[in-house]
Write a structure and sequence with these properties.
Number of domains: 1
CATH architecture: Alpha-Beta Barrel
Number of strands: 8
Number of helices: 12
CATH topology: TIM Barrel
CATH superfamily: Aldolase class I
Helix content: 40-55%
Distance between the termini: 12 Å
Largest sheet: 8 strands, parallel, barrel
Strand order of the largest sheet: 1-2-3-4-5-6-7-8
Bound molecules: phosphoenolpyruvate
Shape: globular
Radius of gyration: 17 Å
Strand content: 5-15%
CATH class: Alpha Beta
């Protein structure tokens, strides 16, 4: 399957880390590092996902007119979650329109920590995916198996079910706008990587699940990211795989000096793809 038309995406999920001032400083350090160390190079899409309260500060950095930061066209700000309803008596929730009003363009949905600690279900992820698309937010839909499921030989079944549920009742046109992140739960924050060929196999299977539901042209265009203890030392091998179009990064996105080599890995993939095209 050709990957030449797909975007390369490096997203940083900052989880519940960083004060507003710290998030702002991190965003500045990442963007200045990119501007300095990757000047003139084709860049992957870089998506910074701070906590809700830090979104305006990080957006200010990304949209700064001072020219010191990375090419703005490649840098975006995403939320880590959202409510699917537009407004109402839902204490503590944030609506899609509130995110777009700020200038947020992406939203992580169905992260395993949301599924594990906050009762997020496949059906809930589907409602949120629909709401994100209705509001022109790019949903980064996370799927992944637990260690028990992997050891029980259930990986493919679980992932297929999660993917199919997330896109249920969506049109092909809508599905073409989503990003999927394969994040094996046992590899998140554990330092354990899923071996690249296996991660690639699962990413390919995600694409073939979409292919079965929506056809090749939709499936071929969807970026499928890998997430789970991605580091500067693992990214080159991951970005050399046919079906891994980028990375969703947790721990290693919290320090500019650790995140920058991963962004460089994404830039290398773009070059690799250009030579294959
Ligand atoms: C994540 O939070 O999505 C993630 C992949 O975390 P980490 O890189 O720390 O494993």
């Amino acid at each position: 399957m050709s990957s030449k038309v797909r975007k390369t995406i490096i997203a940083g999920n900052w989880k519940m880390h960083k004060t507003v001032a710290e998030a702002q400083a991190l965003a500045e350090a990442v963007l200045q590092g990119v501007a300095k160390e990757l000047a003139g190079e084709a860049l992957p899409d870089i998506i910074l996902c701070p906590t809700y309260v830090s979104l305006p500060a990080v957006l200010n950095v990304v949209n700064a007119p001072d020219g010191k930061t990375a090419n703005k066209q490649n840098c975006f700000v995403g939320a880590q979650n959202m409510e699917h309803r537009d407004s109402g008596a839902f204490t503590g929730e944030i609506a899609p329109g509130m995110l777009t009003h700020l200038g947020v363009t992406h939203v992580i949905l169905g992260h395993s920590e949301r599924r594990q600690f906050f009762g997020e279900t496949n059906q809930g992820v589907n409602l949120k995916t629909k709401a994100a698309l209705a509001h022109k937010l790019v949903p980064i839909v996370c799927v992944g198996e637990t260690l028990d499921e992997r050891e029980g030989g259930l990986t493919d079944q679980v992932i297929r079910r999660q993917v199919a549920a997330a896109v249920e009742d969506l049109s092909a046109e809508e599905v073409a706008k989503i990003v999927v992140a394969y994040e094996p739960v046992w590899a998140i924050g554990t330092g354990k990587n899923c071996e690249s060929p296996e991660a690639n196999r699962v990413c390919k299977m995600i694409r073939s699940t979409i292919n079965e539901l929506y056809g090749t042209s939709v499936a071929d265009g969807i970026p499928v990211l890998y997430g789970g203890s991605v580091k500067g030392s693992t990214i080159d091998e991951q970005m050399a795989q046919s079906d891994i179009d980028g990375a969703l990064v947790g721990g290693a996105s919290l320090k500019a000096e650790e995140f920058l080599p991963i962004i460089k890995g994404g830039a290398k993939r773009l070059k690799l793809m250009a030579t294959k095209a």
